[in-house]
Amino acid sequence: MHDHTYADSNSNSQSDYLRHLYHRLQHRLRHWMSFWMGCDGNQLSLLYMRPENAAVFIHGSNPDDYF
What we know:
By secondary structure, the protein is mostly helical.
């Protein structure tokens, strides 16, 4: 289930914000995953590029809380 109400209320600024947040998450996840799994993160690209997985972090009030 996805709630698009907030994104639809202001699509331009919201999409810009989500894009910025998503890139930040990718950067954080790449380093966090490689730290824990001992890899360079390339083989994890399918994991952190999947929207349904990233949504778990994106929909949190503050992504920093997860790390």
